[in-house]
Amino acid sequence: MVEGQGLSVLGQPIPAVLFNVTPLPMALIVSPRDAIRQEANISLLPDLPLDKIDALEQEVSQNLDVSALVVPVGGIGMYPTMVMSSSDLPWLIETIAHEWIHNYLTLRPLGMNYDTSPELRTMNETTASIAGKEIAEMVLTRYYPDLLPPPPSENAENPVQKSAEDFKPRFDFSREMHTTRVTVDGLLARGLIERAEKFMEYQREYFWKNGYQVRKLNQAYFAFYGAYADQPGGAAGEDPVGPAVRSLRERSQGLADFLKRISGMTSFDQLAQAVN
Questions:
Q1: Among 83, 91, 93, which residue's Cα sits nearest to residue 20?
Q2: Extents of the domains making up the chain
Q3: Does residue 160 surpass a pLDDT of 70?
């Protein structure tokens, strides 16, 4: 589909779309305790048992006085890319597209500077998430229309009869995670590290009670998941990078225009100037 979006040369995507569906290593994420910032992302063996994961996190956290978290990953943007095996075809297509975007960016300034700063990492991941979703929707529309999500029901907002249960406020994971991140950032900015950590554990239990099985919620969690800011809210909190990337996409003439503009950037200041 990329050839129809102005992202190909002589009808071929550059680089070619190559991937392996394979078991993926897990990642050990390390953040300082007094700030949310990814300082290390270390690959581990796939299928690490939970007891060893927990022991490793505790050892790293206690010995180095940091926040540590082992997370699963769905894909790795090396070349050819590595993608987790899944029977969920829409997810698989989106993940392949996401990782190909990383390959595309790696040949350009934005991707070359992936690890230069937290802002550039968020720009990379948010760009890949936005473009991956768009390309996946194009692929599904052309080849697998039956797998597209159904359009919103016209009667969804006007049911014939409502029960008392319908009037209860629904739990919004993204909104609650956003509120949690903002609160934690505020506490850490005031130097209240232990209070922030107690609050995150309280919120983790709250998420669990509402059906979201967050195993551990700490600074490393936000440092990792906060970089994927293609949707408002969520673990990114009030970080301005994600909204700026989304704004650039909205102001671009198409997907190719967006990618060509952002892929040449080497700082968040350039992005901020482009949207302002």
A1: 83
A2: 2-144+172-275
A3: no
